[in-house]
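Lecture 7, part 2: worked example. A protein chain together with fructose -6-phosphate.
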Amino acid sequence: MEIIIRPTAAEASSLAARIIAKHLREKPKSVLGLATGGTPLPLYRTLIAMDLDWSEVITFNLDEYIGLPREHPQTYHSFMWENLFRHTNIRPENVHIPDGNAADIPAHCAEYEERIRNAGGIDIQLLGIGTDGHIGFNEPTSSLASRTRIKTLTRQTCADNARFFGSEEKVPKHVITMGIGTIMEARMNLLLAFGENKAAAIAGAVEGPISSINPASILQMHPVAKACIDDAAASALERANYFRWVHDNKPDWQKI
Ligand code: F6R
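Predicted complex, written out as structure tokens:
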């Protein structure tokens, strides 16, 4: 895993935005895997300000809550349109977000996987990380080979996401999420993490053993996984200075 540590979330997000922008310019028909939550917001604002051409881009979101009406302000459908898509020229038919109201969830999950395959696979998968190490909503002990499916959130994730809903009780307990096996098939994984509350999860993912207890640790097995993190999220890494040294000494052409 390549660990890129920048002093602030804004600087780390700007670097991640440049990685994505470069890809979109080189391949207008890129397939992007997208994430929601607080972490990608500065990145999405930066991408919007770059005024890129999204007319041929295809997107697949990682996850969605089950059971909320689609237009509820906290669905990931609403989140994505509000914070990214409506500010771009993306075609609505190119946007894919799991349907948390699907009548047959297993069939919908299988179809979601098929759509990813039919689109040619994901070029860049954007990821946040939960305080328990989850990626997508693959909570600790998720199968490292899992595919898109229903998951039950941990109490910790419900508590972490209570800030979006006003209280923990209002957070839906069930979600549809891409599996870890699905995420690992993306050609590049780009993980973002900001703030001290992510430091333990990042240390486990980067320097700990590969284990379903910290699902993000599977990224150690991915050929092109980059983590853009701020100083606070890097604060529990034993080798933080080594990662800074590696980045500072890269040839310019290799920095993005
Ligand atoms: C969201 C997702 C989750 C979040 C994670 C961190 O689509 O898949 O894995 O990335 O829960 O959430 P924030 O960014 O709100 O700390």
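Residues 2-248 form a domain with the Rossmann fold fold (CATH 3.40.50.1360). The mean pLDDT is 97. Keep this in mind for problem set question 3.
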